[in-house]
Fold this sequence. Notes:
178 residues; alpha+beta; 10 strands
Amino acid sequence: MKAIELTVRKNEPLKKFCFGLDFSNLRIDKFYMKSLFIIVLSVLFVINVHAVTKVSISGNDQMQFSVKEFEVKAGEQVELEFKNEGTLPKIAMGHNLVILKEGISAIAFGGKAMQAGANATNALPDAVKSDVLAYTKLLGPGESEIIKFKAPEKPGLLQFVCTFPGHYAMMRGVMVVK
């Protein structure tokens, strides 16, 4: 295999030998090469800028998340779909998903939410939201919600939890920011 060689001089044909093919009969000048290069870079930039990590997690009547850990890229947009796959009434077995800021323990946060008045109709009191990166509303059986947020710029481990009273003891997981 021959190396790729570019000759881009004003109004001179581009000569490339790649995989034994000769493109010297193509009249590609410097302007077109620059234009093509800019277009390719722009497309790659747009694709990268709009990159979104999609995550799907569910909760059930056994007080378990379907996913205990998921990864996202630092600074990237995240689209998280959360669904309550249970069948018990919301007042008895509602679920939410709360992603905590780095360094916040799910167990400690669950206790803090309870002390702030978390209950079966308001599982995430406003008084504790300063420790939260993103959250879903409290969902009943068969309900789902999609939340969108930006992952932190700094790599790290962020815990997520269900804050329905008592669920924080079992319904926990980790979002890994790489």
